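Hi there, hope your week has been kind to you so far. For a while now I've been wondering how a particular protein folds. I'm sending you its amino acid sequence along with the backbone structure tokens. Could you read through the record and tell me how the tokens relate to the sequence? Take your time with it, there's no hurry, and the full record follows here.
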Amino acid sequence: MKRIEIFTFFLVISFLVSSGIQVVLGNEQTNLNVIDRYNLYINEQISTVDQEYIRSVLLTRSREIVLLNFTVQNHGEPISSVTLQAKINGQFKTRTFYLMEKISLSESESYQFSLAQQLYLPLGSVTENSLKLSITLILDPTINWRTSNINFQIINAELITMDYYNPLELSSLDIFPASQYFIVEPEKYTFLEKSLAIHSYLFVVPPPTDFSLLCTLRITLTQLEIDSVTVNQQRYYGIGDHTLIINYSLSSSEINPINEVLILIKPDYNGFDSAKAVRIELKLSGVFQKDSHSNFLPINHPIPGWIMLPVLIFILFVFPYYYAYQEMVVQQEKEILNPVNQDNNY
């Protein structure tokens, strides 16, 4: 009876230890969203500071997220900012895109409109299949003491719609924009070295209770090396690298249907003496995991699996039989030392 109890005890202990190595949440590998794109057929040169467009869009299927995307380029005098205003089914949304953006105590390069830029404006969620859009584009010229020579091109305009999905493992997350272009000038003085500002959007369905989204962000800067990258006020260094991989997490309380990710990239200004046309590429993946305060938090066991497996086998089989053998030896010794009890068994 004791042998069975000992064996059962070690079996339970071994099970608890082994179950603490890792909690497998799922092996589904998929994209987060299924995306539909609708061309708004806006492609023209404009010469005024504001322009309005009216469009009606019939969605092929109901979607939860609607996103406006304008691809633009300035061919005239410098533009300090571009504002997109949209009214969708009676709801107003607006956003201003700046050439130079004030961040903390410094200014950063944001949207260089002399290059083709993609301007994204989240419009929230919709329940109707028929959408009425009123879009206004407002330009703010850098020169304000005289009439500016405006020659601004709208290359393309589209409406992006998508649905939420909530797999536990996300092989890739949709991030808007995924790339952006800059012309970087060498600077003679350190305090003039500016960061490159990118505002990207991440759309994530709220995770299950007590879950966090662990993100892996891959940032690639062509032509120049990366000095440092700041993501949501957290700074990472990548001196000497063109690519920097950053891991960070969003808790369930931090995740919204629309999440803006502010990325500041400081190029390495050493080693180049002429203007460089650079491209920034972003790739994002993630996985949902239990928060640290959860009772079912996956345990990162310090012992490698190839070592832990023999240990578990030893605990499961060697320990119980060893104690059972010891009990049998003790019983035999008792019988040898006390032959009376042995005779009474017959």
